[in-house]
Write a structure and sequence with these properties.
The structure holds two protein chains of two kinds.
Chain A lengths: L10 H14 L4 E6 L8 H14 L6 E6 L11 E3 L4 E3 L7 H10 L22 H4 L17 H6 L4 H9 L2 H11 L11 H10 L6 E6 L8 H8 L1 H15 L3 E7 L3 H16 L15 E7 L8 H8 L23 E5 H13 L1 H4 L10 E8 L5 E6 L4 H8 L9 E6 L5 E4 L9 H6 L8 E6 L4 H15 L5 H18 L5 H17 L3 H5 L2 H9 L1 H10 L13 H10 L1
Parallel strand pairs in A: 1-2, 5-6, 5-8, 6-7, 9-13
Antiparallel strand pairs in A: 1-3, 3-4, 9-10, 11-12, 11-13
Helix pairs in contact in A: 6-10, 6-13, 7-8, 7-10, 9-10, 9-11, 10-13, 17-18, 18-19, 19-21
Chain B lengths: L3 E6 L2 E6 L4 H7 L23 E6 L2 E6 L10 E3 L3 H17 L14 H9 L17 E2 L4 E3 L9 H9 L5 E4 L6 E4 L11 H6 L5 E3 L12 E6 L8 E7 L2 E7 L12 H5 L14 E4 L2 E4 L2 H19 L4 E5 L5 H15 L4 E2 L8 H6 L14 E5 L3 H4 L1 H14 L2 E6 L11 E4 L5 H10 L4 H8 L4 E5 L10 H10 L4 E5 L6 H6 L6 E2 L3 E2 L3 H11 L10 H10 L4 E5 L3 H4 L3 H10 L2 E6 L11 E4 L8 E4 L4 E5 L12 H11 L9 H11 L8 H5 L6 E2 L18 H7 L8 E6 L7 H4 L2 H4 L7 E3 L1 H7 L6 E5 L4 E8 L7 E5 L13 E6 L6
Parallel strand pairs in B: 1-5, 16-17, 16-25, 18-19, 18-21, 19-20, 21-22, 25-26, 26-27, 31-35, 32-34
Antiparallel strand pairs in B: 1-2, 3-4, 3-5, 6-7, 7-10, 8-9, 11-12, 12-13, 14-15, 14-27, 23-24, 28-29, 29-30, 31-36, 32-35, 33-34, 33-36
Helix pairs in contact in B: 2-3, 7-20, 8-20, 8-21, 12-13, 12-14, 12-23, 17-19
Classes of the chains: A alpha/beta, B alpha/beta.
C-alpha cells in the first residue's frame, strides 16, 4: 500500500495508488463548489457554509465538500454541483446552504429556485443545454477535482499517460503520435504541434527548453486560467510528456501575475508532483528528469508572443525578436525551445490516452479535437465551454450559450481577441475551425468569443481593440508603434463625428501596411479588428462618416442632443 | 571562405557567401537597401522594418526584412517591387509622423540617413495631420552627448551599441508603444568612454555631440582621412574641418584596427589642435623669462650653446627624449639628428612604459589586432585596456562576447574586461613574478586557468599593468605566453607613435628598422647613408634624466615630450632639467617641461602635417594634413633640419615624403612602403616587416624560469602598502589639458583601498588619507575598492593638481586629520 504523500516509483505504483484512492472514496458523495472564478461572488463563504452544514448534520463520513475549479456556467455563479447525480445549483448564498443540505444532500429533493432557469427539469448537469451540447475532454477534470490535492488528480487518472510514455514509448514515437493526432497549437497561431516538436528535435543545440505559455492576455479570455486553476496536474502531465519527447530537462510556465489563483495552484501542483516523484529526477522510475519553474509576467500583453516571452524569461525587456529563426531552432538562451500554450499541453495526455489516430477522428479536416471557448458579452450563459472543432457559431451562441438576453438580435461575435475579427450574423452556421475563421477575417485565437447585439457599435468595438493594441505595443518596430496609434486616432475621429469618407480608405491602407510590415504577431494582427469590421460592417462606418449617425446609439458625439442627455443620465 | 551561392537581386544574378545577410550581400553588389537599425558591426535586430524586400519562396512571395534574411542558393530578391516600395514608403511615412522637420537647424541635416532615405525611398507627402510627439528639447545625457527625443526614431542603435559593443548599458528604452523613448537611468549619466560613437551611428539628429553642436553644416566640411594618434592602435578616423579649424573626428571602419569605433578621448581629443595656448613663435629664455624671438634668433641661440657643449664635451654630453608623439618621419629625423648631428646614443622615445625597447619593437611571433578575432583564448596581462586603449578593449570584448573566445585577465585590480573574463587573477603589485611562476606551474587553482590557456590559438596582450611594476615582468609574461599553443604576443605600450619611433631607432639599443645598436652589419648599412654614428652605449629616458642630475650630461633635446608630467619619477625629471646647462624643446605648448627649456620651437600638431605612424602590431598608416599650423609653427623634421644646418652638419631633408623614401632605404622592414602605397593599395595600412622583408632583431623571450621569477618578486617595506599607479583615459596630460571638453572628465586624485584595509585604518569612502612615498606626500580622498587585494592602494596617475607619487613600490598610508569646514 502506498503511503499518502510518498514517492510513486513506477507506473504500476501509480495505478495501485489510483485503485486505492478510488476504493477509499467508495460511498462518498461530494459537494463540488467552484472556488476559482466564483470566488468573486462569495464562493469561499459558500464553501465554508457547506463544510459547517455537513459537520452540523453529522455527514462527514459520507459527504465531502470539495473546492474545485470552474464548472463553466459563470452566469449562475457561484455554482455548486452535488454528486452522485450531478445536481447543479447556481446563485448559491450562505443563507440557502442549510436548505440545500437538508433537502437535497440528505433527502435527494430538488430545490426549484436554485436550478438553471428555475426549472426543475434542468436540475441535473446532463439536462442543461449548456452542458449537454459540450464535449468535455480537456476540461474533463476541471470542476471535478480539488486542484490543490494531487490525489484527486491521480484518482482521476492524471499522470497515467505520462507513465505510459515514460516507460513504454521512445521519444520519437511520442512525436509521431502527436503528429498523427493533428493537434494544432491552441494559443492562436494554429501551427501543428507535432511538426513543431519535430523541427525542434532536429535543431542543433546543447539542450532543449520547454515553455508553457500561460500569459493569456486577450480581453475576455479565460480558458488557460481555468485549466491552470482547475486542473494544473493535467498541464504538468502534458509538459512531462512533451519534455520527454523533446528530451528537455527544463521547463518554464510563464504565467501572468494577474492570475494569482492560477499561480498559487500551479506552484502547489509542482511542489506536490515533486514530492510524489512525478517531477524532478527519475520520474516514475524511468530515469527521465524534468524541472519546471514558474515565472510570473509583469502584465505586458506582448509577452504572450513567443519571442518576447523568451526575451522576458532571459531577463531582457519583453520585446519581440524577428523570426526566423523560430524558437524551435533558436529560442531561450539561443537553444531550441518549444513554446506551447496551456491548452495545447492539456490536450497531450488526452491524445496519448486515446491514441493520436483516434483523436484525429474528432474535429474537422484541418482542425482536430475539441476547443475551449470563453463565452462572454451579450449572451445568456456566459462561461467556459468545450466543443468539438467544427461546431458552428450558432451552436455555441444559441445552443450552449442560450442565445442573447432580452431577446435582442445577434449582431456579431468577436473572435480571437485583439488579433481577431468580428464575424457577422451571416456566418452563424460557419463550422468553426482554424481555417474557416481565417477566411472570414477572424482567427481562432486562444478562444475568446464576445457576443454582440444591436446595441453595440461596431466602430466603437474596433476602436476599443485597436486602443488595446496601441497600449500594448512594445514600441520596438515602427509600423506597430505608430500604426496602431494612428489607426486609433482615425477611429477616434470617426466616433467623434469628425470622420470623412477618405478616412475609411486611409484606415484600410494603413491597416494593410501595419499588417504586412510589423515585426511580430502583435502588430501583424493588430489591424484585424479594423479590417474585419470594415469588411463586414462597412455600412455602419458609412453611417458614421456620411450620415453622421451611430446606428447603435453608442457614439455620443453623433447622437441628437436629447439622446445625449438621456444617455448621460443612464450612463 | 564560406561556400558561394547564387542569388538574384532585382533581376541580376550575383554570387555571395552562403548565409550572408541579404542586405549586406546586395550592398556589396551595388544594390542599396534602405535601413536604420541595421549596422554592419552590430547584431541584426530587424526592428525598424525599413529594409523590407520581397523574397520568392516555394510557398509564395513574402515580404521580409533583408537584414535578418540570409542568402541561400537560388533565392530571388526584389528590393524595389511595388509591394516592397509600398512597404518602404509606409515605414518612412510612419517614421516621419513624429520626427520634427527641424532639419535646417539640425546638426545631422545634410548627412542624415533619415533625410537621405526619405528623399530616395519616401512617399513624398504624408497623410497624417495629427500633432507630433513632444519632449523637452535636447537633454544632456552625459558631459559630451545631448539627446533630442523628438527626433529619435527608436532604431536602438545607441542602446545596442552601449550594451553590445561598449559593455556600458547605461541607456535603454523606457515605456512602451508610442510612448517609448531612450533614457538614461535615474541619477546615472551615460558616462561611457565610448558615448561619442552613438552620435556617429545615430541615423537622425537625436544624439548630438556637445563639442560639435551648431558648429558647421556637413557640406561645408573638408573631410580628410587620417589615423588617430592618442594611443598605439592608430584608429582610422576622418578629420573634418571648416575654415582651417578642425571641428570633429569621426571613426572610419578599418577592419584591421578600430572597425569604425573610437573612444571619446580620441573622438573629442582634437580640441588641443585649435587651442589658443598653442605656441606660435619660437621662445628664448632671457634672464629666466621667455621672450618671443625670431626664428633665426632662436636657431642662433641653439647653434651657439648646443654647439659649444658638443664641441667642448662631445655629443655624449647631450641627451634626447621624445619622438613618440611625432610621425615616423619626424622620429626618424630626430634619431638621425641625435646620432649624426649631435653624435649621441642617449635618445629615447619611451617615457614611462619602462619596457625593453627590443621587446616592444621586435617581439616575435607578434600578433596582429585582427588575430584577436581568430583566437580561441586571449590573455590580457597589461594595463586596463578600457582606460588606455579603448578600441583594443572593444576588439577583445567583441571577440569574447560575440565569438566565444576564452579570456584570462591578470591585473592588480578590476578592469573593464572582467565581466567577460573566463578567469580573472588579481595580485599585489610586486608579486606579479611570483604569480606568473605559480600560473606556469599550474598547481591548485591555477590548473583550470592553465587549461583555458592551453586552447590555441592564443593571443597575449602583454604590457606593464602599472607604473610601479617590475618592467622585466612583461618579458617573462611574454615568454610564458609564447610557450602556449599557437601563441602570439601583442606588446602593449600606450603613447601614440611609440612603436613607430622605436622602429625609427629612437632608443639607445635600437637602430632604424628594428636593428640592434652595435650590430655591425646594421651599423655598416646605416653608416653608408648616414655617415659615422657613435658606438658608445646609450642611456634611456631615466638614464638621461639621472645623467643630467649627476652632471654626466649637460644638455637635453626634447621633442614633443613632457617628462615632468609623464615620467612617474617627476622629481628626477625636474631636477635633471634644472641641472642641465641647456635645454631645447620642440613642442605644441609650454608644458611643465618646456617651461624649463632655454629655447622652445613651435611645432606642428597632428592634423597639420603629413606622414606615417606605426601601431602596436607594426601597421604603418598615413596621417594627413587638414589644417595649417598656427603662427610660425613647423614640422619637427624641419626644425631639426634647420638646427642641423646651423650646427654645420645638415641633415639634408627636402620633405617628409623624401624622408619616408630614406626610411624605406635604410630600414629593410620598411622597404617597399611608400606614401603612395598607403594612399591607394594598402588603405588598411601595411604591416612591418612589409612583404617578404624580415627584421634584423627577432626578439623571442626565453622560457619561464621560476627561480628567477621568485627572485624578481618584491614586497613593499614593512608597514607600507604596495602602490598600484596606473593611467586613466582622461588625465592631466598636455593634450588633455588643452582639450577642454575632456579635461574636466579626469577622475581626479583619489586613493583606492580594500575595505578591510580601510576599516583597519579607520577610513571611510571620501575621507581624506595621507599618502607618502619617497617622491611625494599628498592627501587624497579615499575610495573603497573591493577589487584590490589587501595591502594594496591604487592611485590614478597624472591627475590635475596632484603631484606624481613616483614609481617606488612602497607607500605609507594613514588616515588624514579631518579638515573642519
Amino acid at each position: 500500500m502506498t503511503e499518502n504523500g510518498s514517492r510513486i516509483a513506477s507506473p504500476a505504483d501509480l495505478s495501485a495508488r489510483r485503485e486505492q484512492l478510488i476504493a477509499e472514496d467508495v460511498g462518498i458523495r461530494r459537494i463540488l463548489v467552484c472556488s476559482t472564478g466564483c470566488l468573486a461572488i462569495g464562493a469561499r463563504e459558500v464553501e465554508a457554509a457547506f463544510r459547517e452544514g455537513v459537520a452540523a448534520a453529522d455527514l462527514q463520513g459520507e459527504v465531502q465538500v470539495v473546492a474545485t475549479g470552474c464548472h463553466g456556467l459563470c452566469a449562475m455563479a457561484p455554482v455548486v454541483v452535488i454528486e452522485p447525480n450531478d445536481v447543479v445549483y447556481g446563485r448559491n448564498r450562505i443563507k440557502y446552504v442549510p436548505d440545500v443540505i437538508e433537502q437535497t444532500v440528505k433527502s435527494g429533493e430538488i430545490i426549484r429556485r436554485f436550478c438553471f432557469g428555475r426549472d426543475p427539469e434542468m436540475a441535473h448537469l446532463g439536462d442543461i443545454p449548456f452542458y449537454a451540447h459540450q464535449t468535455k475532454a480537456v476540461l474533463r477534470n476541471v470542476g471535478r477535482v480539488d486542484p490543490q490535492q494531487i490525489d484527486d488528480a491521480i484518482q482521476r487518472g492524471v499522470y497515467e499517460a505520462a507513465g505510459q510514455v515514460l516507460t513504454s514509448m521512445e521519444p520519437d514515437e511520442v512525436v509521431e503520435e502527436i503528429i498523427a493526432s493533428g493537434l494544432r497549437g491552441r494559443g492562436g497561431g494554429g501551427f501543428p504541434a507535432g511538426l513543431k516538436w519535430k523541427i525542434c528535435k532536429e535543431s542543433p543545440g546543447s539542450t532543449t527548453y520547454l515553455i508553457c505559455n500561460a500569459d493569456e492576455g486577450d480581453p475576455g479570455a479565460f480558458m488557460d486560467r481555468a485549466l491552470l486553476e482547475g486542473d494544473p496536474h493535467s498541464v504538468l502531465e502534458g509538459m512531462i510528456i512533451a519534455a520527454y519527447a523533446l528530451e528537455a530537462a527544463k521547463g518554464f510556465i510563464y504565467v501572468r501575475a494577474e492570475y494569482p489563483i492560477a499561480v498559487e495552484h500551479i506552484r502547489i501542483a509542482i511542489e506536490q508532483a515533486h514530492e510524489r516523484g512525478l517531477l524532478g529526477p527519475d520520474i516514475l522510475g524511468s530515469n527521465f528528469s524534468l524541472d519546471i519553474e514558474v515565472r510570473e509576467g509583469a502584465g505586458a500583453f506582448v509577452c504572450g508572443e513567443e519571442t518576447a516571452m523568451i526575451a522576458s524569461l532571459e531577463g531582457e525587456r519583453g520585446m519581440a525578436r524577428p523570426k526566423p529563426p523560430y524558437p524551435a531552432l533558436r529560442g531561450y538562451l539561443g537553444q531550441p525551445t518549444i513554446i506551447n500554450n496551456v491548452e495545447t499541453f492539456a490536450n497531450v495526455p488526452v491524445i496519448i490516452g486515446q491514441g493520436g489516430v483516434k483523436f484525429a477522428e474528432s474535429g474537422t479536416e484541418g482542425s482536430k479535437g475539441t476547443k475551449i471557448f470563453a463565452l462572454a458579452g451579450q449572451v445568456n450563459n456566459t462561461g467556459l465551454v468545450e466543443v468539438p472543432m467544427g461546431a458552428t457559431i450558432r451552436e455555441i451562441v444559441f445552443d450552449v450559450g442560450g442565445g442573447l438576453p432580452k431577446k435582442r438580435e445577434f449582431k456579431a461575435v468577436q473572435m480571437g481577441g485583439p488579433s481577431g475579427g468580428c464575424v457577422p450574423a451571416s456566418y452563424l452556421d460557419l463550422p468553426i475551425d482554424y481555417d474557416s475563421l481565417r477566411e472570414v477575417g477572424a482567427i481562432m485565437g486562444s478562444g475568446g468569443m464576445i457576443v454582440m447585439d444591436e446595441t453595440t457599435c461596431i466602430v466603437d468595438i474596433a476602436r476599443y481593440f485597436i486602443s488595446f493594441c496601441a497600449e500594448e505595443s512594445c514600441g520596438l518596430c515602427a509600423p506597430c508603434r505608430f500604426g496602431t496609434v494612428r489607426l486609433k486616432e482615425i477611429l477616434d475621429r470617426i466616433c467623434g463625428g469628425r470622420g470623412t469618407i477618405d478616412d475609411l480608405n486611409d484606415l484600410e491602407r494603413l491597416a494593410e501596411v501595419v499588417q504586412k510590415t510589423s515585426l511580430c504577431g502583435l502588430g501583424q494582427t493588430a489591424p484585424n479588428p479594423v479590417l474585419s469590421t470594415l469588411r463586414h460592417f462597412r455600412d455602419e462606418y458609412l453611417a458614421h462618416v456620411a450620415d453622421r449617425t451611430c446606428p447603435a446609439g453608442v457614439c455620443t458625439a453623433l447622437l441628437p442632443e436629447k439622446e445625449v442627455a438621456t444617455a448621460a443620465k443612464e450612463g | 571562405m564560406a561556400d558561394l551561392v547564387k542569388i538574384t537581386v532585382d533581376g541580376r544574378q550575383i554570387e555571395v557567401p552562403h548565409g550572408e545577410l541579404v542586405i549586406r550581400a546586395a550592398q556589396d553588389h551595388g544594390v542599396y537597401i534602405p535601413r536604420f537599425c541595421w549596422h554592419p558591426r552590430m547584431r541584426e535586430v530587424g526592428m525598424c522594418r525599413m529594409c523590407l524586400v520581397e523574397i520568392e519562396t516555394p510557398r509564395g512571395t513574402i515580404l521580409t526584412t533583408a537584414c535578418t534574411t540570409t542568402a541561400a542558393e537560388g533565392m530571388v530578391v526584389h528590393t524595389a517591387s511595388d509591394t516592397a516600395k509600398k512597404a518602404q514608403e509606409g515605414i518612412l511615412e510612419f517614421l516621419l509622423i513624429n520626427h520634427p522637420l527641424d532639419c535646417p537647424v539640425c546638426d545631422k541635416g545634410g548627412e542624415c540617413p533619415l533625410q537621405d532615405q526619405t528623399m530616395a525611398f519616401g512617399p513624398g507627402e504624408s497623410r497624417f495631420v495629427e500633432e507630433k510627439r513632444h519632449y523637452e528639447k535636447p537633454i544632456p545625457i552625459s558631459d559630451l552627448v545631448f539627446l533630442d527625443r523628438e527626433r529619435c526614431i527608436l532604431c536602438a542603435r545607441c542602446t545596442r551599441f552601449a550594451d553590445e559593443i561598449a559593455g556600458d548599458p547605461l541607456i535603454e528604452f523606457k515605456d512602451r508603444g508610442n510612448h517609448t523613448s531612450v533614457e538614461t537611468f535615474p541619477d546615472l549619466p551615460f558616462s561611457s568612454y565610448f558615448s561619442g560613437n552613438t552620435v556617429q551611428i545615430c541615423p537622425v539628429g537625436a544624439l548630438t555631440a556637445s563639442a560639435y553642436r551648431f558648429k558647421a553644416r556637413p557640406w561645408d566640411l573638408l573631410v580628410v582621412e587620417s589615423s588617430c594618434s592618442h594611443c598605439t592602435v592608430g584608429c582610422r578616423i576622418s578629420v573634418e574641418s571648416s575654415q582651417n579649424h578642425v571641428l570633429r573626428f569621426n571613426g572610419v571602419d578599418n577592419g584591421a584596427t578600430n572597425q569604425g569605433w573610437l573612444s571619446d578621448k580620441c573622438r573629442f581629443g582634437f580640441e588641443f589642435i585649435g587651442s589658443e595656448q598653442r605656441l606660435r613663435t619660437p621662445l628664448v629664455k632671457v634672464e629666466g623669462e621667455f621672450r618671443e624671438a625670431s626664428w633665426a634668433e632662436a636657431l642662433d641661440v641653439v647653434a651657439d650653446r648646443l654647439g659649444a657643449i658638443i664641441e667642448e664635451q662631445g655629443g655624449d654630453a647631450v641627451g634626447g627624449i621624445g619622438g613618440a608623439r611625432s610621425t615616423n618621419e619626424d622620429a626618424y629625423a630626430f634619431g638621425k639628428f641625435m646620432r649624426t648631428v649631435v653624435g649621441s646614443n642617449h635618445l629615447d622615445a619611451r617615457l614611462d612604459d619602462g619596457l625593453d625597447a627590443r621587446f616592444l619593437a621586435a617581439v616575435s611571433p607578434r600578433a596582429k589586432i585582427a588575430d584577436l578575432d581568430r583566437a580561441a583564448t586571449i590573455l590580457v596581462w597589461a594595463p586596463d585596456l578600457k582606460e588606455e586603449s579603448g578600441s583594443l578593449y572593444l576588439r577583445v570584448r567583441h571577440a569574447v562576447q560575440e565569438r566565444g573566445a576564452k579570456l584570462v585577465v591578470v591585473h592588480p585590480r578590476r578592469t573593464g574586461l572582467d565581466d567577460r573574463a573566463t578567469h580573472k587573477l588579481t595580485y599585489r603589485p610586486g608579486e606579479g613574478p611570483a604569480l606568473l611562476g605559480e600560473l606556469a606551474g599550474g598547481a591548485g587553482d591555477y590548473a583550470k586557468v592553465l587549461e583555458t590557456l592551453s586552447l590555441g590559438p592564443v593571443v597575449a596582450v602583454v604590457g606593464r599593468t602599472g607604473l610601479t611594476e617590475q618592467p622585466q615582468l612583461a618579458e617573462e609574461v611574454a615568454a610564458f605566453a609564447l610557450s602556449l599553443p599557437d601563441a602570439k604576443v601583442l606588446p602593449f605600450a600606450r603613447r601614440s607613435n611609440v612603436f613607430g619611433a622605436l622602429d625609427m631607432g629612437v632608443a639607445p639599443t635600437l637602430l632604424p628598422g628594428r636593428a640592434a645598436a652595435g650590430d655591425s652589419e646594421a651599423t655598416g648599412h646605416l653608416e653608408a647613408v648616414w655617415g659615422p654614428i657613435p658606438t658608445q652605449a646609450g642611456r634611456d629616458t631615466m638614464g638621461i634624466l639621472q645623467g643630467l642630475v649627476d652632471g654626466d650630461l649637460k644638455a637635453l633635446v626634447l621633442l614633443g615630450a613632457d617628462p615632468v608630467r609623464d615620467v612617474p619619477a617627476a622629481g628626477i625629471a625636474r631636477r635633471g632639467m634644472e641641472s642641465a646647462e641647456f635645454v631645447v624643446a620642440i613642442d605644441l605648448f609650454l608644458t611643465d617641461s618646456s617651461e624649463l627649456a632655454d629655447v622652445v620651437f613651435p611645432a606642428e600638431a597632428f592634423g597639420e602635417k603629413e606622414g606615417t605612424i606605426t601601431n602596436l602590431e607594426g601597421r604603418v598608416q598615413k596621417v594627413n594634413r587638414v589644417v595649417t599650423g598656427p603662427g610660425q609653427s613647423q614640422a619637427d623634421w624641419t626644425i631639426l633640419d634647420d638646427i642641423s644646418r646651423r650646427l654645420g652638419k645638415p641633415l639634408g631633408f627636402a620633405s617628409a615624403e623624401a624622408i619616408s623614401k630614406e626610411i624605406a632605404d635604410v630600414a629593410p622592414p620598411y622597404g617597399g612602403i611608400s606614401w603612395e602605397l598607403l594612399e591607394w593599395d594598402a588603405k588598411e595600412g601595411a604591416v612591418v616587416p612589409y612583404g617578404e622583408a624580415g627584421q634584423p632583431v627577432a626578439y623571442r623571450p626565453d622560457g619561464v624560469d621560476r627561480e628567477a621569477l621568485a627572485a624578481m618578486s618584491r614586497n613593499p617595506e614593512s608597514g607600507a602598502f604596495a602602490l598600484h599607479l596606473a593611467r586613466t583615459l582622461y588625465d592631466d596630460g598636455v593634450l588633455m589639458r588643452n582639450s577642454l571638453s575632456l579635461h574636466a572628465l579626469a577622475p581626479g586624485g583619489a586613493v583606492h583601498l580594500h575595505p578591510a584595509d580601510a576599516a583597519r585604518l579607520g577610513v571611510s569612502e571620501g575621507s581624506l588619507v595621507e599618502v607618502e612615498t619617497v617622491d611625494a606626500s599628498v592627501r587624497l580622498p579615499a575610495v573603497i575598492d573591493p577589487s584590490l587585494a589587501t595591502g594594496v592602494v591604487y592611485v590614478p596617475f597624472n591627475q590635475p593638481g596632484i603631484p606624481s607619487l613616483g614609481s617606488d613600490l612602497s607607500v605609507v598610508v594613514a588616515a588624514g586629520e579631518e579638515v573642519s569646514a
